[in-house]
Amino acid sequence: MAIQRHIFQINIIFILSFISSYASLHDGPPYNKYLQQESGYDFEAYPSYYSTIEDTKFKNSAKLQTRIYGFKTFQRLAASANTINVDDFGAKGDGTHDDTQAFQKAWQKACSSTGAAFVVPQKKNYLLKPIRFSGPCKSKLTMQIYGTIKASSDRSDYNTQGNHWLIFDSVQNLIVQGGGIINGNGKIWWQNSCKINKALPCKDAPTALTFYNGNNLIVKNLKIQDAQQIHVSFEKCVNVQASNLEVIAPEMSPNTDGIHVTDTQNIQISNCVIGTGDDCISIVGGSQKVQATGITCGPGHGISIGSLGSGNSKESVSDVTVNGATLYGTTNGVRIKTWPGGSGSASNIKFQNINMHDVMNPIIIDQNYCDQAKSCTQKSSAVQVKNVVYQNIKGTSASDVAMTFDCSKSFPCQGIAVQNINIAKAGGGAAKALCNNVNLQKIGTILPHCP
């Protein structure tokens, strides 16, 4: 029995030594970092666990403080060997040659392979027309964007697929990362917007990066800039992690929302820097279980739920938490906006631990939102806003009114709680609060407070 135990211990030592030796053979970044950046394993998304090896015959167990990722390494390294490089399919990456077909061929190969890594090489600039990365794929897939992907500026290229530039359609278990740039090249679209040139008809522009009908998505460590309209949109997705994204466009670029969430459940947005011409984050109908943490926002229109209920529609959003955000010079802070005449609800929402710097409308619920040329008439129905908490919010307001609850007479705001609010006017002095048709609970110091 002693010999058998001795053999068991030797086997454990051998396994640990093998893992350690294998890691030491690889130069470059630290081992964890190598796995995360090169092989696509996300340590934040999938925390490590401790494994237990049990000697069932002798009723002894040895808990090995070797993380499971040690064994996943072999799977990931084997998978990353199946590298699909767009250059091998004819992509030039010179910024002028149309690389759309090369990307399409590379995607077809990667999607039909097992454990593929689709690679966009660094120090190159790939020009793409609208492209659809269609699924479902054979297995998990990682797209490593090290270089730059730039959109065609020829608006006629979008005649067939006018609403999207890059779209991942029905792709499951996907990681998109790499530290590269996605450039929507949107200037030509902004110049032809009716919001810039009032003489022009109002038309939609493409969303730069869309994830549609996807499950188990990780999008991280990317810069998305100068979108034609919305920068990143998650539509009808489940289980999403979006982290360490830099999303930027000029303050005057119209409708360039940073991250847009629609009809999506269980999404975490973390550690993102967003500055655009519209909402930094917009959360609209059908979305549930949305968490945003560590957000830097500005310029832009703030962090918004809605708009909801446009065209007398029924829309609902629930279970949203914004915890930890800093806003600079935005036209709104944390906002809920609903159209008169709509129905549905915005419920179970929490805004907490937020700093405002020279922000217009730092806290606002607007149930009379009307973003159209003609004024909106009063309606008997409205989207119900209920169970909303504002906690630990401080800073300065660029407007006299720092807190606005403009709620519907027929559907007043219910269960609104404010706790530890301290917002002053940016130029000094006390700000004001406007409170109409709201059921309000106050806890702690509230500045400004409702009259």
Number of helices: 5
C-alpha end-to-end distance: 82 Å
Helical content band:
10-25%
Q: What is the number of independent domains?
A: 3
Please identify the top-level CATH class of the largest domain. Mainly Beta
Structural class, by secondary structure, is mainly beta
CATH-defined superfamily of the largest domain = Single-stranded right-handed beta-helix, Pectin lyase-like
Describe what you observe in this structure.
By secondary structure, the chain is mainly beta. It folds into three domains: 34-72, no CATH class; 82-242, Pectate Lyase C-like; 279-451, Single-stranded right-handed beta-helix, Pectin lyase-like (Pectate Lyase C-like, 3 Solenoid). Helices cover 14% and strands 47% of the residues. It is built from five helices and 30 strands. It has helices at residues 2-24, 31-39, 69-80, 100-111, 187-191; strands at 50-55, 60-67, 83-85, 94-98, 117-120, 125-128, 131-134, 141-145, 148-151, 164-169, 174-177, 181-183, 207-212, 215-225, 232-235, 238-248, 259-262, 265-275, 281-284, 287-297, 303-308, 314-328, 334-338, 343-359, 363-366, 384-397, 401-406, 413-425, 432-436, 438-447. It has a 17-stranded parallel sheet that branches. It has an eleven-stranded parallel sheet with strand order 7-10-13-15-17-19-21-23-25-27-29. Strand 1 and strand 2 form a beta hairpin. The longest helix has 23 residues, at 2-24. The N and C termini lie far apart (82 Å). It is an enzyme of class 3 (hydrolase). The active site is at 301. GO terms for molecular function: polygalacturonase activity. Its EC number is 3.2.1.15. One of its GO terms (biological process) is cell wall modification involved in abscission.
